[in-house]
Design goal:
5-stranded parallel sheet, two-stranded parallel sheet, 14 helices, 7 strands
Length: about 300
């Protein structure tokens, strides 16, 4: 087979660096790095998707027409691993590279899409799609849309509408399905039509103890708090203990623990009521603010508010 001869336009060129710079997607990628600790495989995949979109944009400028690449995605992982944050940044990247008209993200669950009686589901689903059009629709715990054990469930109707829009309007809407990996795998096995429309599967790993400690420091700094050296050592122990307990939700559980530590710090300062408080007093979380957690009383107990499933 002979090579296709060069045409007069085959030597035309485009400035990749200039288009990359003008798109300002590096700003979004940097923000993602700053917002989320770790998650290297996730960040690598997002950069790969951004590169695909950028090259596709260059190809269109060179009249190298091809079908619009599908950007529907599946984000799998445990709670608190950054799936929603990454979805928001993905919406920004898609918008800056001209894949979607707007950069907004609409986050929903089954309750926002599925009705309780005949004739209720279709208008609910279409209303959500109308709001999301031109942007990204993020469906958390998407597997709850499908309940085959319930013959009177209306989730299947919502899925059918979603499938039609994902196929026919994929150049104006990106759908991201999210949830636990094992449940999402079963969902796709039961819904091959949905599985065939998902182009990118991204798995979000759990954070390790060192990453969770770094996340805690960043969260505190955002609120003008810090841990004393003694408190940091105690909190590192808390993280290991908490990770071994049920319903651990990664960064979400860390935020809950810090909120309770701030509450204990405020009560400690108020109870003392002696002399004047310095700025250092007001911003410092001490070891006792963590040690009052019930997790240190009994290795099998949970800190208050961590007893509910996440």
């Amino acid at each position: 087979m002979t090579d296709k001869p060069l045409s007069n336009n085959d030597n035309a060129s485009v400035d990749l660096e200039a288009i990359y710079r003008d798109s300002q997607i590096q700003e979004v990628l940097d923000r993602l790095d700053n917002e989320l600790v770790g998650l290297k495989p996730v960040k690598t995949r997002i950069r790969e998707v951004a590169a695909l979109l950028l090259v596709d944009r260059l190809r269109r400028e060179m009249d190298l027409t091809a079908g619009t690449p599908s950007m529907h995605m599946s984000f799998t992982g445990n709670p608190g691993t950054g799936k929603t944050t990454v979805a928001m940044r993905m919406a920004d990247i898609l918008h800056r590279l001209g894949y979607i008209r707007q950069g907004h993200l609409i986050a929903v669950t089954r309750d926002d899409l599925v009705g309780q009686y005949i004739g209720h589901t279709a208008p609910k689903t279409r209303e959500v799609l109308k709001k999301a059009m031109g942007g990204v629709l993020f469906i958390d715990e998407a597997y709850y849309l499908y309940k085959p054990e319930n013959e009177r469930d209306y989730g299947a109707e919502s899925i059918e509408i979603l499938l039609q829009v994902m196929e026919n309007q994929r150049d104006d809407l990106v759908v991201i399905l999210a949830g636990y990996k094992d449940r999402m795998d079963k969902f796709f096995q039961s819904n091959p039509g949905m599985s065939s429309r998902i182009a990118h599967h991204i798995d979000f790993p759990n954070y390790n103890p060192e990453e969770l400690l770094q996340i805690a420091k960043l969260m505190l700094a955002e609120s003008n708090y810090r841990m004393s050296p003694e408190a940091e050592a105690v909190f590192a122990d808390y993280v290991v203990r908490r990770m071994a307990q049920p319903n651990f939700a990664n960064a979400r559980s860390i935020r809950n623990a810090l909120d309770r530590a701030r509450l204990r710090q405020a009560n400690r300062l108020f109870s003392a009521r002696s002399g004047h408080l310095t700025k250092v007093d007001l911003i410092t979380i001490e070891a006792e603010d963590f040690l009052l957690s019930r997790i240190f009383d009994d290795a099998t107990s949970l800190d208050a508010e961590d007893t509910s499933p996440s």
